[in-house]
Every structure is written in structure tokens, then in C-alpha cells.
């Protein structure tokens, strides 16, 4: 009898799983995603005139930002499509799809023809790019949240998932840093002529690098276990479907409610506050930008510490701390910022707000992933989160400016506090998710030894 040296595919040893490779590959797409999101908003003042007729610069900017807003409405669609893909075809497939959309959208903006060259066709290209970017953002959060949660050891999920917001903040800082460099090395005329294309070329190249990294990722063992078990039952048929998700409608509503306060606070203290320091507090744009850069850097470094803390004491204590802090602290912090005088006081006040929301940002991804079973986990994280983000996060800046225009800017502070209060009720009543067992092996490890013997018998 002869034997073959090659063996079957199933006999071959699988490549070793590297926790750090999984962590970097799962989270780095957020860096590119938020870099692209930031540079579109911040460089719009330079490229708005390229896509619309000359004349009223405010009208040009409004049209450009109108296209920017479309991306928010595409996020729930992206959450549904890519969440479904992640549950049916695998976490790796969803991660690869999101980064492909990222690269294409950035490249389209980088090469889009101007109004002077092709009329409104250039604006149409810009619109298509934003639609693709909205789809990508809608799916990226859930794809990375699900992958990071499933690829991590049970006692390190909070720490690993916190790198989602590390990478998101790093993306903003990269965009901000490139903007500062270009503003100091190029004239405004050069930036408006062609310099604004540079950030999008960088974004497209960055997405290509992430694509390579993700192509070499291993699928999570949790997802593979469910695939191999093959449950040729309702679970398999409902994998990644709205019908399957509807069976977990309580968790669906829970994700929307717990996201509500967090996303409003996040956009307030990260995106809106730079404009607030300039427009309301009267700081120069350069000082306001520097305050934000320093505060966001410290905020980024806090995420893994808070995530690791949640692995020791649980998720709910951090969420409750955020809810109470945001509900009671937003009004005094924002009121104090109105009359802030100097770099250091502004930095300390902004940091106090960012420290509060760290209780949410560091662990919100893992909490959502731990709420759902494997066959609808990606969709369960993606769709309700995208809906909540479009409703509350995407509108935060608009609501803030509406209150300011109405002469009642402090009304926005109370709005943020009220959103946090709603989420706080959820944090008090929801179950602790830290010890949720995601796989059969984790369930067996959690059982008493006697129960394990009975189960095997």
C-alpha cells in the first residue's frame, strides 16, 4: 500500500493565527475610511468651485456638502448589503468588499473632471463616489467590529475592539496632518487648481495597501465553526437575512438606543467642536485646529486602556459612566467653552468631554457584536448602527447649527444631554455582554466540568 505525501486539503495544517495581524487587518480599514471622510469635508472649500459654475462660492460649497450628506443616507444601505455579505460569505469577504469600495470612491474623486471640462458630469462622478463611500462606511464598522470580536480571545475582546476607534481617530489625525502640510507648502490658488486631488490619491493608495493586508487574513474560527456545523435548518437558511434578524428585534432596538447618545456625543466632541471653538468661542482657526489635534491624539491613546478595563470589570460600568457623564457634563463643558480663553483651558475642557465619551467609544463595537448570534452578527451590528448614525450622528452638526441660527445655541447642549439620558436607561437595563460565549468551545469552557461530561456522554 502506498501513501501520498501531499495529503488532502483537510489534512494540511492551517496557517497559524496571529492576534496582532488580525487586529491590524481588522481595524486599519477604519483609518482609511475616516481619513477619506475627513478630507472630503475639510478640502471641500478648495474643490467646490471645480464642480459647479463660477459665481456664488457659498452655493458651490452647499452643493458640494449636499453631495457629502448623501453619503450618510447610503450608510444603512451599506450596512444591510455588506452585513448580509459578512454573514453569508464570511467576515473576510465583507472586509475585502468595504476596502474595495473605499479605494474606488477615493480614486474617482481624485480623477473627477471639472465643470470647466465636462460640465455637470464631474459633479455626477463626485456623487457616485460619495454613494460608494457611504456604502463602504455603512459596512466597514460592522465588518471590522464583528471580525475583531470573533478573532479575539474571550478575555481580550474589549481591548481588541477598542482599536476600531484608535484607527478611526488616527484616520482623522492623518487627514488633519496632511491638510496642515499642504496648507503650509502650497498656495491657496494651487490647492484650488489641483492640490486638492492629492489627499484623495493618498486615500486610494492607502486603501490598496489595506486590501492587500485583508486578502491575507484568516477567516474567524467562530464563523468557520458555524459553517462546518452546517446547521441545515432555519439558522442556515436565515443567515444574514432580515427575517433572521427580526427574530432578534429586541437586540436590534437595543443597538439603536445605546448608539443614540454615544454617536451624538462623539460627533459633538470630535467633528463639531473645532468649528465651535472658532465660531462661538472666538479662537483662531489655527489654534482651534491645534487644540483638536492634541485632544484627539490623547483620546486615541485612551481607547485600548478603557477597552482592557472593560475586560476586567465588564462593559456596562463603562457605558453607565459615559451615560451619566454625558448627561450631566455636556451643558457645563459646552457652556464653559463658550468663553474659553487660551489654548490650555480649551484643551482641558475638550479632553474632559473626550474622556467621558471614551466609556462609549472604546467598547460600543464589541457590545453590539456580543448581543447577536453568529448567523446574523454582522447584519445585526451593521443595520441598526447605521440607522442610528444616520439619524443622530449624521445630523448632529446640522442640529447644532440650527440652534445657533435660532439664537438658542445652548439648546443643543441640552439635546446632547437628552440623547445621553435615553441611552443611559438602556445601559442600566441591558444585560452584561462581557462573558457572552460566541462559539461552542467557549460555551463548553464556561460549563461546569460535570455538565461537560454529561454533554459528551
TrEMBL record:
GO MF terms, alphabetically ordered: symporter activity
Chief place where the protein resides: membrane
Matches recorded under PANTHER family: ALPHA-KETOGLUTARATE PERMEASE, PROLINE_BETAINE TRANSPORTER
Record-linked CDD domains: MFS_KgtP
A Pfam family it matches: MFS_1
The name this protein goes by in its record: Putative proline/betaine transporter
Membrane-spanning residues: 64-82, 194-213, 252-269, 289-306, 318-337, 343-367, 379-400, 412-430
Membrane-protein topology: Multi-pass membrane protein
Keywords: Cell membrane, Membrane, Symport, Transmembrane, Transmembrane helix, Transport
Source domain of life: Bacteria
Family: Belongs to the major facilitator superfamily. Metabolite:H+ Symporter (MHS) family (TC 2.A.1.6) family.
Coiled-coil region(s): none
Any one cellular-component term (Gene Ontology): plasma membrane
Intracellular or extracellular location(s): Cell membrane
Protein's UniProt keywords contain Transmembrane: yes
Role this protein plays: May be a proton symporter involved in the uptake of osmolytes such as proline and glycine betaine.
Domain Major facilitator superfamily (MFS) profile positions: 22-434
InterPro entries: H+-coupled_symporters, MFS, MFS_dom, MFS_trans_sf, Sugar_transporter_CS
Amino acid at each position: 500500500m502506498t501513501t501520498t505525501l501531499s495529503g488532502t486539503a483537510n489534512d494540511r495544517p492551517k496557517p497559524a493565527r496571529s492576534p496582532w495581524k488580525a487586529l491590524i487587518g481588522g481595524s486599519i480599514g477604519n483609518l482609511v475610511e475616516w481619513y477619506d471622510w475627513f478630507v472630503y469635508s475639510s478640502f471641500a472649500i478648495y474643490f467646490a468651485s471645480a464642480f459647479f459654475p463660477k459665481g456664488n462660492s457659498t452655493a458651490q460649497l452647499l452643493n458640494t456638502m449636499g453631495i457629502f450628506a448623501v453619503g450618510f443616507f447610503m450608510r444603512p444601505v451599506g450596512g444591510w448589503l455588506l452585513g448580509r455579505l459578512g454573514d453569508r460569505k464570511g467576515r473576510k469577504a465583507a472586509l475585502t468588499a468595504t476596502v474595495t469600495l473605499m479605494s474606488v470612491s477615493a480614486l474617482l474623486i481624485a480623477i473627477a473632471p471639472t465643470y470647466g471640462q465636462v460640465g455637470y458630469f464631474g459633479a455626477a462622478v463626485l456623487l457616485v463616489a460619495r454613494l460608494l463611500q457611504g456604502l463602504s462606511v455603512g459596512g466597514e464598522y460592522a465588518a471590522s467590529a464583528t471580525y475583531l470580536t470573533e478573532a479575539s480571545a474571550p478575555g481580550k475582546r474589549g481591548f481588541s475592539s477598542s482599536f476600531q476607534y484608535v484607527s478611526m481617530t488616527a484616520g482623522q489625525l492623518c487627514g488633519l496632518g496632511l491638510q496642515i502640510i499642504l496648507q503650509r507648502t502650497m498656495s491657496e490658488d494651487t490647492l484650488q487648481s489641483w492640490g486638492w486631488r492629492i489627499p484623495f490619491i493618498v486615500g486610494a493608495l492607502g486603501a490598496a495597501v489595506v486590501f492587500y493586508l485583508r486578502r491575507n487574513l484568516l477567516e474567524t474560527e467562530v464563523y468557520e465553526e458555524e459553517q462546518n456545523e452546517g446547521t441545515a435548518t432555519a439558522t442556515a437558511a436565515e443567515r444574514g437575512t432580515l427575517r433572521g434578524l427580526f427574530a432578534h428585534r429586541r437586540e436590534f432596538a437595543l443597538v439603536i438606543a445605546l448608539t443614540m447618545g454615544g454617536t451624538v456625543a462623539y460627533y459633538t466632541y470630535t467633528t463639531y467642536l473645532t468649528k465651535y471653538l472658532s465660531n462661538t468661542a472666538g479662537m483662531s482657526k489655527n489654534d482651534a485646529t491645534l487644540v483638536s489635534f492634541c485632544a484627539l491624539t490623547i483620546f486615541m491613546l485612551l481607547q485600548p486602556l478603557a477597552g482592557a478595563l472593560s475586560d476586567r470589570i465588564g462593559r456596562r460600568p463603562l457605558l453607565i459612566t459615559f451615560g451619566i457623564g454625558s448627561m450631566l457634563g455636556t451643558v457645563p463643558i459646552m457652556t464653559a467653552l463658550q468663553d474659553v480663553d487660551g489654548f490650555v483651558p480649551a484643551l482641558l475642557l475638550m479632553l474632559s468631554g473626550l474622556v467621558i465619551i471614551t466609556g462609549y467609544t472604546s467598547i460600543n463595537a464589541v457590545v453590539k457584536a456580543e448581543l447577536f448570534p453568529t448567523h446574523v452578527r454582522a447584519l445585526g451590528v451593521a443595520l441598526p448602527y447605521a440607522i442610528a448614525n444616520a439619524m443622530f450622528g449624521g445630523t448632529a452638526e446640522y442640529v447644532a447649527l440650527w440652534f445657533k441660527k435660532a439664537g438658542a445655541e445652548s439648546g443643543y447642549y441640552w439635546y446632547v444631554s437628552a440623547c445621553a439620558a435615553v441611552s443611559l436607561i438602556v445601559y442600566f437595563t441591558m444585560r452584561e455582554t462581557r462573558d457572552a460565549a460566541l462559539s461552542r468551545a467557549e460555551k463548553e469552557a464556561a460549563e461546569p466540568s460535570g455538565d461537560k461530561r454529561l454533554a459528551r456522554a
